[in-house]
Amino acid sequence: MNYKILLTKLAILSLLVLGLSAILFTVEQLPITIVPFFPFIVLYFFLLSAFQFYRIGKFRNENVRTFHTKYTLWFGIKLFVNLAVVVTFVLLDKSMAKDFLIYFLALYVIYTIFDTYYLAKMVKK
Known about the structure:
Helix content: over 70%
Order of helices and strands: HHHH
């Protein structure tokens, strides 16, 4: 799959997430806290996913053993970076920690599903 097409789809996903969250934030009956950092979490996942597709696109044509090793290494680095971001934010602002964790986890699930789907398509070709 072409990297530009993946970036376009990733941008569409990010815009949909931002749009839907803006709608949810305006519904007064929902117990959702409006937080100023939400767009930055979306940007973080967009950039992380874009970099992931770029890196995996570079080594997907190598032999299967090398690909699995590099993919596993990338997955470990990604998990560590995500954990570092969460711990850093929680330590810096404990008052918003719960909201941050909820939004971060929700976006992590959304972007992981997207990444897994398109990486599987990428590797099949």
